[in-house]
């Protein structure tokens, strides 16, 4: 079994090659032998929170392998009402995206909103700043916030992001990963959704060595990454010099724990 | 000792550009050059402007390429980049990147001679005058930090064109078979290229899709051309192979998977012949 905890449905950045509806995602999952994909609505992240969440709810009804995150945006506080979707069986948690939504996760007003979100959901997938020049959601800042909500599990996306270094922005932020690991938070996981996990040799080895297999989960950002990239990412994890049981934790074991009964045992 | 893989190059172009020009291509292309190279297992990159992308300055893209052992930037871009016809070029920008990035080892002239695709060469023998290429060569060779090489794309159907004066100015010649059906004469064409390029570094260009006939390359065509390249590499006639491209590495082509597997199988084989004369550069810049 393989569970991808980080995907999207809809059209990202209006780019034709970053678009997928439920059927296209199902086809892509076939092509990379992934069993389950947890998605949030691209429309919710980029354009209209309510409309995107509603679209996702409709799409999930017709899909056997997609599960959903409700997107919540403190800039539009009304979006808190969408958390009622968490009562539906195929919604597994909440996605937050400080960089695209334009808020600092440490701001006081934002905290009040996010506290309400964290109290309402067992799982939050948080974007971590992984694009040059973005920094509202540094890995340690998200982890620090997670530490305030020990009963909610947090997935920090994009392998702790990239160095926000204007001269050399295209390197994995392993130092951020170290700072997150040093916090020793039981409710914090890190996903693999960044192409740097396979572009540079040894990145995943170091990630495992820093975080441990118990704290890493598989994610791809599909359809930002397609089936070929997903297969490649799986290969990289399958070739890690660690016991198969640890590879399985990254590919599905930890995710199954996080999703509980949402995934048939 | 060098391995075959040390001399493999990716023809790196912006994701989506091939699909934009060849809608017959299947699937979707999302892999950028760094991803495509990692996927195929290729350590070097020819970074080539296509559909005017990337446009100078190349800073952003050059940073992304810092993990490659060697990078050769296009000097004039692919045939459709008409802003660089008539002796205009991106060479000064390439040299600026070479100052910043020690893994930049040259510049390549893509789609340089009149093409079956009909790119505008205005009835000339080439997109640039011979004087322009002489100037380019001098700038590359006299680049203060280190000598840089001038590369050339030469299609097999152009081998008998009257362009020897241009070829003589280039340090590295890459031979490309535009039509899959012409792969039947691949060995003959490599021999001819070798005759026409004594003392030069030679690489084969390996397409992963049959652009000239707008269809997939068959398994037989792929197996056959890869076997030929391996033989010529072993004999020292070829120094390396350039694989085209990240733009078709992830769209579901069988040829891409055949190539990836072939690179895994033969890549670690030691180069038995002293053909390799490329620059020695570190894996990562510091």
Query: What does the overall shape of chain B look like?
Result: globular
| Residue share in helix of chain B | 25-40%
The oligomeric status of these chains comes to heterodimer
In what order do the strands lie side by side in the largest sheet of chain A?
Answer: 2-1-3-4-5-6-7-8-9
Main beta-sheet strand count, sense and barrel state of chain B: 8 strands, parallel, barrel
Number of strands of chain B: 8
- Strand tally of chain A: 9
Task: State which percent range the strand residues of chain B make up.
Answer: 15-25%
Q: Helix tally of chain A? A: 11
The succession of helices and strands of chain A, N to C, reads EEHEHHEEHHEHEHEHHEHH
Low-confidence stretches of chain B: 276-286
Q: Helical proportion of chain A? A: 40-55%
Q: Outline of chain A, from the CA principal axes? A: globular
Query: Helix segment count of chain B?
Result: 9
């Amino acid at each position: 079994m393989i569970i991808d905890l980080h995907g999207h449905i809809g059209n990202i950045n209006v780019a034709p090659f970053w678009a997928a509806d439920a059927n296209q995602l199902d086809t892509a999952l076939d092509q990379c032998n992934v069993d389950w994909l947890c998605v949030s609505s691209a429309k919710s992240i980029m354009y209209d929170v309510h409309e995107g969440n509603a679209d996702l709810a409709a799409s999930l009804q017709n899909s056997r392998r997609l599960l959903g995150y409700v997107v919540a945006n403190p800039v539009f506080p009304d979006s808190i009402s969408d958390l009622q979707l968490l009562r539906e069986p195929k919604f597994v948690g909440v996605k937050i995206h400080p960089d695209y939504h334009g808020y600092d996760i440490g701001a006081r007003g934002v905290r009040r909103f996010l506290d309400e979100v964290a109290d309402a959901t067992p799982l939050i997938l948080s974007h971590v700043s992984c694009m040059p020049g973005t920094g509202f959601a540094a890995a340690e800042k998200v982890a620090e916030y997670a530490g305030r909500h020990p009963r909610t599990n947090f997935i920090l996306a994009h392998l702790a992001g990239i160095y926000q270094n204007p001269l050399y922005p295209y390197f994995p932020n392993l130092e951020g990963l170290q700072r997150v690991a040093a916090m020793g938070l039981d409710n914090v996981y890190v996903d693999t959704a960044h192409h740097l996990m396979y572009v540079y040799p040894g990145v995943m080895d170091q990630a495992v060595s820093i975080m441990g297999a118990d704290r890493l989960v598989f994610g791809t950002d599909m359809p930002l990454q397609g089936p070929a990239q997903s297969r490649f990412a799986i290969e990289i994890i399958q070739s890690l010099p660690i016991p198969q049981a640890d590879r399985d934790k990254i590919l599905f074991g930890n995710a199954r724990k996080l999703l509980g009964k949402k995934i048939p045992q | 000792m060098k391995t075959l893989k040390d001399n493999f190059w990716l023809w790196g172009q912006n994701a989506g550009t091939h699909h934009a020009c060849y809608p017959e291509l299947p699937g979707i292309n999302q892999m950028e050059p760094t991803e495509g190279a990692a996927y195929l297992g290729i350590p070097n990159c020819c970074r080539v402007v296509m559909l005017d992308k990337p446009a100078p300055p190349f800073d952003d893209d050059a940073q992304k390429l810092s993990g490659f052992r060697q990078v050769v930037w296009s000097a004039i871009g692919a045939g459709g980049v008409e802003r660089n016809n008539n002796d205009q070029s991106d060479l000064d920008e390439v040299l600026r990147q070479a100052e910043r990035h020690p893994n930049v080892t040259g510049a390549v002239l893509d789609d340089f001679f009149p093409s079956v695709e009909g790119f505008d060469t205005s009835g000339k023998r080439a997109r640039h005058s011979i004087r322009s290429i002489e100037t380019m060569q001098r700038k590359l060779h006299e680049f203060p930090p280190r000598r840089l090489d001038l590369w050339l794309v030469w299609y097999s159907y152009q081998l008998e064109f009257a362009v020897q004066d241009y070829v003589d100015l280039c340090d590295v010649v890459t031979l490309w078979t535009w039509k899959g059906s012409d792969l039947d004469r691949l060995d003959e064409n490599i021999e001819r290229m070798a005759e026409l390029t004594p003392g030069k570094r030679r690489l084969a260009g390996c397409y992963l899709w049959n652009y000239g006939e707008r269809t997939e390359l068959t398994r037989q065509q792929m197996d056959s051309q890869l076997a030929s390249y391996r033989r010529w590499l072993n004999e020292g006639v070829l120094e390396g192979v350039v694989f085209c491209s990240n733009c078709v590495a992830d769209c579901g082509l069988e040829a891409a998977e055949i190539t990836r597997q072939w690179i895994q199988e033969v890549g670690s084989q030691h180069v038995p012949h002293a053909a390799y004369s490329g620059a020695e550069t570190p894996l990562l810049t510091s």
